[in-house]
Amino acid sequence: MLKITKFGGSSVADARQFRKIKKIIEADPDRKYVVVSAPGRRFSSDPKLTDLLYLLDAHRQYHVDASNVFQSIKERFMEIKTELDLKQPIEKELDALYTNLNQLSQAEIVSRGEYFCAKLMAEYLGFPFVDAKDVIRFRLDKTIDWDATRAKLETKTAQFSNFVMPGFYGATSHDQIQVFSRGGGDISGSILAQCLDADVYENWTDVSGFLMADPTIVENPEPITHITYSELRELSYMGASVLHEEAIFPVKEKNIPIHILNTNRPQDFGTIIQERTKYKAPYSITGIAGKTGFMSIYIYKKHMSNEVGYMRKVLSILEDYNVSIEHIPSGIDSFTIVIQEKDIEDRLYEMLARIKKELKPDEIRTQDKIALISTVGKSMSARPGTSGKLFGALGQNDINILMIAQGSDEINITVGVSEEDFKKTIHVIYDTFVQEEELL
After folding, report:
1. pLDDT tens for residues 12-38?
2. Angle, to 10 degrees, between the axis of helix 67-83 and the axis of helix 15-26?
3. Confidence of residue 408 (pLDDT cuts 50, 70, 90)
4. Containing structural domain, residue 71
5. Please, how many CA atoms are within 13 Å of residue 216, restricted to the half-sphere of its CB?
6. How many CB atoms lie within 10 A of CB 415?
7. What does the record give under GO molecular function (predicted)?
């Protein structure tokens, strides 16, 4: 069996975390290829290394003295090196980084958190170090060059039976460093898993996988031991985030499971993400997630159904204002557009005025302070009465539903409620589908 292991920022925050990683790697010989992020926070007020590197770059761009920022970066790495008694001469490379700061691109600068962390981790584990810029290849359009990446990985794996590689970055065909978006170390590990046909992609972080609801709202919610990529996308979009969502795509096609695990509690089962599985879920839903900060625009026009392109014209006006649409529940002569309040800011009345002037609706009204809550589960479509059970429970608890939307794949039901009812709604749905089903 081949396992790709990726350790996030909190997992490599200091020497104590490095020791935990060594025990994890030594506990399973199948963990041959390791990807690391830049060191994260050691405590709540501690800056992440990548944040310090972005700050270092900002000082460079604005010609401000960056010596204090650089010293903080250097001290973080030197503390790990000293405490673990490592010999890697990273101080020379760190000093060279600062000396040549004005000749470096932003991508080169911000990628050094992963680079130096991987160098230290490689020595500590006794593994070879492989630089991501020598393996991960980007095309000119910033997409992954899979053929080139696969070929370079085959060369490295033929040379080394195991290695440590920094996440978050790769290089163009001209050997210029290019980074992923923040959290992109997850993508790096996923790319290795796909190219090397791994049996499992382990993603080690500071939580034991996903929970069925937000633990700040529901006390001790049940863990999600298994989830499909599709369900994860739905929950992540509504705020349940542990994994960079772009990390899903490289492994989804090959159905390689992603196993979310906790570096601080390696004995916990975690969450396995896999699209095609024989696992039978214990509940009719997989999880609940939600967000506040939405508003709706209701538009009514007599005989709208006979007027071709009416909805498209309204949406084109919103597009002119760069407003993203969340949901569009519709009727015969009316529809409602749900959007995030932050996308509108001070442009709402100007936008409404355009809709009134150009499309002359019979009625247009808005409602703010809306929360959206998604109930997600691939088993829901196969269980008659799920929607009725959900809506009935909300009605019995005096929760007014402002909007209902269901995905075409029938794995989620989204309801809009007043922000005042946000937490109550999540509690009611959780109690209805988890606690009540446990009693059956």
Report:
1. 999 999 999 999 999 999 999 999 999
2. 40
3. low
4. 3-273
5. 4
6. 23
7. aspartate kinase activity; ATP binding
Q: Which two tokens stand for residue 54?
A: 């972005």
CA distances to 4, 11, 22 from 19, rounded to whole Å, are 19, 10, 5
Residues 353 and 366: their CA atoms lie apart, in Å, by 13
Mark whether 29 and 158 lie in a shared domain: yes
Residue 42 is part of a domain; what is its CATH number? 3.40.1160.10
| 260 and 355 assigned to the same domain | no
Out of 273, 300, 319, a domain closes at 273
Point out which residues pair with 231 in neighbouring strands: none
Distance between CA atoms of residues 392 and 7, nearest Å: 43
Q: Mind giving me the DSSP string for 215-282?
A: TTTSSSPPEE-EE-HHHHHHHHHTT--SS-GGGSHHHHTTTPPEEEEETT-TTS--EEE-SS--PPPS
Per the annotation, binding residues are 6-9, 50, 114, 205-206
pTM for this structure? 0.87
Residue-wise pLDDT tens digits, 187-226: 999 999 999 999 999 999 999 999 999 999 999 999 999 9
For residue 278, being part of any structural domain is answered with no
Tell me the per-residue pLDDT of 342-394, one tens digit each, with 9 for 90 and over. 988 788 999 999 999 999 999 999 999 999 999 999 888 777 888 899 999 99
Q: Which residues are annotated as a binding site for ATP?
A: 6-9, 205-206
How confident is the model over 133-140, as a mean pLDDT? 95
In tens, the pLDDT along 59-114 reads 999 999 999 999 999 999 999 999 999 999 999 999 999 999 999 999 999 999 99
Annotated binding residues for substrate: 50, 114
In this structure, the dihedral spanned by the alpha carbons of residues 359, 371, 231 and 170, taken in order and rounded to 10 degrees, is 80
Q: Are residues 313 and 402 in the same domain?
A: yes
Distances in whole angstroms, Cα of residue 411 to Cα of each of 105, 117, 245, 277, 301: 44, 40, 18, 16, 32
CA angle 301, 303, 307 (to 5 degrees): 90
